[in-house]
């Protein structure tokens, strides 16, 4: 099983968006419908979702007009309204506005081995199982000669990815007391601008600091020689460097001491701490130069062990059914993503998709 791929030929934002929307019309509409169902189960009325989507689009347009143009193009190609595509891009902000929470979520590992060896990265991407058909791989060229490849959801401008500047990003959701129901710049747009514009961790952090946000996330930026987890919240942005030995781990709780005071996710769903401890205990495997070995080092199932590899309980409502939908590594020297559809328990050497 592999994820669908799309390679843009258009370079102007609105035209690029329309091209994507036209070719992925069915998938984008289905993704919007899936999020509409998720927000309804979590307690949001359709009119409120539309208002949040429109506000997120306005905030995103003020911060990055060209990305708002791309969203408008996607909508035109997919036969949707711009606010509907904005809802897909602002799903983190809408979930924060609803104050939704769940047990699942992602685990990320980056190891910088030094001595000229490339970074060893891997993450799990957990999300709701009724949205398992949403992911896609997208290649685009935001400016001449600068190629971006991203694992994202149909209609979303970016998520996990790598750029021709030699910078890659991993992506985990966070929750903070300062998160609000007043949507700001969508964090998925921040990830996209980092991939489009940044060549260093410092530049990535500066882009994050320039956005006024309403929801929290962590974007782990990696280059050939450096890495940092950029924790983003309405209360501020913190940059977490690797530990001694070049080890940088992140799950779904804040590591910055000041921001951790306002931690929300882990206070209600402490499994993130158990997952983090599992990563710590398996650093040797996570530092291996073989991606399959790194993925297997992540393998752990709840409830008896850390729930790094998630499988949904069909008896739960859709907002509480979590599944590890992808396992992903960054191949920085090649400028490629390596993606497995599913969790670490299903990874073999033959199941990697190189993009």
TrEMBL record:
Pfam families: AAT. Residues 1-12 have a biased composition (Polar residues). Residues 122-339 form the Peptidase C45 hydrolase domain. Transmembrane segments: none annotated. The keyword Flavoprotein does not apply. Residues 1-21 are annotated as: Disordered. It comes from the Bacteria. GO terms for molecular function: acyltransferase activity. Keywords: Acyltransferase, Transferase. Signal peptide: none annotated. InterPro entries: C45_proenzyme-like, Peptidase_C45, Peptidase_C45_hydrolase. This is C45 family autoproteolytic acyltransferase/hydrolase. The lineage of its organism: Bacteria, Bacillati, Actinomycetota, Actinomycetes, Streptosporangiales.
């Amino acid at each position: 099983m592999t994820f669908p791929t799309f390679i843009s030929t258009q370079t102007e934002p609105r035209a690029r968006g329309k091209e994507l929307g036209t070719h992925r019309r069915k998938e984008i509409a289905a993704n919007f419908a899936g999020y509409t169902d998720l927000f309804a189960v979590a307690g949001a009325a359709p009119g409120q979702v539309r208002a949040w989507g429109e506000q997120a689009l306005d905030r995103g347009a003020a911060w990055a007009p060209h990305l708002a143009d791309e969203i408008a193009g996607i909508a035109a190609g997919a036969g949707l309204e711009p606010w509907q595509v904005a809802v897909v891009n602002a799903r983190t902000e809408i979930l924060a506005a609803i104050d939704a929470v769940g047990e699942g979520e992602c685990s990320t590992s980056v190891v910088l081995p030094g001595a000229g060896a490339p970074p060893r990265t891997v993450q799990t991407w957990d999300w709701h199982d009724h949205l398992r058909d949403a992911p896609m791989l997208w290649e685009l060229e935001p400016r001449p000669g600068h190629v971006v490849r991203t694992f994202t959801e149909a209609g979303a401008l970016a998520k996990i990815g790598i750029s021709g500047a030699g910078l890659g990003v991993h992506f985990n959701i966070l929750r903070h007391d300062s998160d609000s129901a007043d949507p700001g710049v969508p964090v998925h747009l921040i990830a996209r601008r980092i991939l489009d514009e940044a060549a260093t961790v410092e530049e990535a952090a500066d882009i994050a600091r320039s956005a006024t946000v309403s929801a929290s996330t962590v974007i782990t930026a990696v280059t050939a020689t450096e890495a940092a987890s950029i924790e983003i919240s309405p209360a501020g942005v913190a940059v977490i460097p690797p530990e001694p030995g070049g080890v940088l781990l992140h799950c779904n709780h804040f590591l910055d001491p000041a921001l951790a005071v306002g931690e929300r996710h882990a206070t209600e769903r402490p499994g993130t701490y158990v997952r983090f401890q599992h990563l710590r205990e398996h650093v040797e495997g996570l530092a291996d130069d073989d991606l399959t070995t790194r993925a297997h080092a992540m393998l752990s199932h709840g409830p008896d062990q850390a729930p790094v590899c998630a499988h949904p309980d069909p008896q739960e409502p859709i907002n509480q059914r979590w599944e590890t939908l992808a396992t992903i590594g960054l191949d920085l020297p090649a400028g490629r993503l390596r993606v497995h559809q599913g969790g670490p328990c299903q990874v073999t050497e033959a199941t990697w998709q190189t993009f």
